[in-house]
Amino acid sequence: MKIPFLFSFPTGMCLLLIPGVFPVSGEGIIGGKEVPPHRRRYMALIKGLKVCAGALIKEKWVLTAAHCDMKGNPRVILGAHSTCHKEKYDQVFSIKKAIPHPCFNPQTFEGDLQLLQLDGKAAMTKAAGILQLPETGDDVKPHTKCHVAGWGSTKKDVCKISSALREANITVMDRKIRNDAQHYNFNPVIDLSMIYAGGRKGEDDSCEGDSGSPLIRDNVFRGVTSFGKCGNPQKPGIYMLLTKKYLKWIKKTIAGAI
To answer: What is the DSSP letter of 175?
Structure first.
């Protein structure tokens, strides 16, 4: 039984981008374009055994995916644009505590959410800011336009992460087709707590290294990047919807840790 790969990626890989040249790989996110530096101030780069992303939701808290491995003393970098070198506005934190959702199931991906408590308070700067959680856990309707950013691979089947933050526009797809034989075929089951989104022909998608990246609609945090088949139009990216249940867990966990 073949399970879609998770969108995390080993660290230590970086490409040199040459102006005017479109490289075979290494720019992050399938399709899309490079984000102007610090345009997405809430983005958190997580560098450990693998690269993941997340979003700063409180001064000491980042929300990411539960399948992102927090072994090996990972660092959370706020204000990052490049994955290749330290930058002027970087704020680097250790993780005081990693708290995966109690119902996370690595086989079904249910509850693929994780809170990271930083070992210090993030300073709000031109490069770092908080992404507000949604007020309700309403669903996202089919055909809704969203965007997702990350430092993951730009080409399916190519194992290199991005040298800079990139972003793609993607469209939410109808759940009526998500589990049919031409798509995920119940392997795993795509349920109502998951958003199913990508480009119509796989031209825009999240990819390896993008795990934990926030899915945004009208500047509202709607989901967290979980898994997919990286540019495959039959198996586009799956995002954990920030439902009422998950929002309640997030707020309760943060309140209990203060």
So the answer is: G
List the catalytic residues. 67, 112, 211
Phi, psi for 53 (deg, rounded to 5)? -135, 170
- Closest residue by Cα to residue 28 from 187, 150, 157, 112: 150
Show the domains of the chain with their CATH numbers. 38-130+245-256 (2.40.10.10), 144-243 (2.40.10.10)
Alpha carbon distance 185, 227 (integer Å): 15
Question: Is the preceding peptide bond at 188 cis, omega within 30 degrees of 0?
Answer: yes
pLDDT tens for the 258 residues of the chain, in order: 333 445 454 554 333 222 222 222 223 344 567 889 999 999 999 988 888 999 999 999 999 999 998 988 899 999 998 877 788 899 999 999 999 999 999 888 899 999 999 999 999 999 999 999 999 899 888 889 998 888 876 554 344 667 788 888 888 987 766 555 555 555 566 678 888 887 554 444 444 556 899 999 988 999 999 876 554 555 577 899 999 999 999 999 999 875
Q: Is 29 exposed, middle or buried (0-12, 13-18, 19+ CB in 10 A)?
A: buried
Task: Give the burial string for 81-120 (b: 16+ CB within 10 Å, else e).
Answer: bbbeeeeebbbebebeebbbbeebeeeebbbbbbbbbbee
Q: Are strands 33-34 and 214-217 parallel, antiparallel or unpaired?
A: unpaired
d(CA 24, CA 246): 38
Give the type of residue at 27: E
Contact 76, 91 (CB under 8 A): no
Cβ atoms within 10 Å of 228's Cβ, excluding its own: 27
